[in-house]
Amino acid sequence: MILGTDKGDSTGGIFVFNLEGKLDTALSITNLERPNNIDTEYGFQFQGNSVDIAAFTERGKDMIRVISLPDCKFIDNGGIPVFEDDSIRSPMGIALYKDKNNQVFAFVGRKDGPADGNIYQYQLLANDSVVSGVKVRELGKFSKKKEIEAIVVDDKLGYVYYSDENVGVRKYYADAEKGNEELALFAQTSITEDHEGLSIFRGCKLNSV
């Protein structure tokens, strides 16, 4: 399945395609308020079962949404509000992380915010038949030159990366217990436009950063 966001202000949606590029209208979700980014995670414990999920930011409602896969059904009881303790909200980027204890977390960024602590980390919890979110911490430097949208997590090694647009890519520990120290800032040169999408794949050996 390929899951893509269409950022309509009141007519946005999550559109689902197969690997041949054919749209699956039965699984696609419409009439959302500016869905921004989406990510998937596997093996989330829900109602006594191990299920796959996707989570996305619904920017027009200042919340994240969680759906089960492959049926693409909401399991969040109308959404999980984010950045409730700040007047600056407008969630954009999101990345899911499963730690070694099989706990699942969402890292959520926003269009604007403070120079430090711009990203919030939430633990996703299954309570009866509903998924909820509990804030774990604030982390992440922000240059305020543009915005933070692209976020990705390396589950295997336990790092979260995000693009501080027009500056570079920042690296932190995904595990909150390891602290909020910035581990690296890279990709600062040879980028001619915004630092946008990020992805991680397994299969090649690169020098560590």
Please tell me about this protein's structure:
With 209 residues, the chain is an all-beta fold. It has a single domain, classed as TolB, C-terminal domain (Neuraminidase). The chain is 0% helix and 52% strand. Strands 4, 5, 6, 7 and 8 form a five-stranded antiparallel sheet that branches. It has a four-stranded antiparallel sheet with strand order 9-10-11-12, with no helix packed on it. A four-stranded antiparallel sheet has the order 13-14-15-16, with no helix packed on it. It is globular and about 45 Å long. The two termini are 31 Å apart. The model has no long low-confidence stretch (mean pLDDT 94).
Highlighted features:
52% strand, 16 strands, Neuraminidase, four-stranded antiparallel sheet, globular, five-stranded antiparallel sheet, mainly beta, 209 residues
Please outline what is shown here.
By secondary structure, this protein is mainly beta. It is 0% helix and 52% strand.
CATH class: Mainly Beta
Helix/strand order: EEEEEEEEEEEEEEEE
**Portion of residues within helices:** under 10%
The helix count comes to: 0
What's the total count of β strands? 16
- The amount of beta strand, in percent, is over 45%
The name CATH uses for the topology is Neuraminidase
- Major sheet details: 5 strands, antiparallel
CATH architecture label: 6 Propeller
N- to C-terminal separation?
31 Å
* Overall outline: globular
Radius of gyration from CA coordinates: 17 Å
Question: Class by helix and strand content?
Answer: mainly beta
Task: Give the count of structural domains.
Answer: 1
Mean pLDDT over the residues = 94
Low-confidence stretches: none
CATH homology superfamily: TolB, C-terminal domain
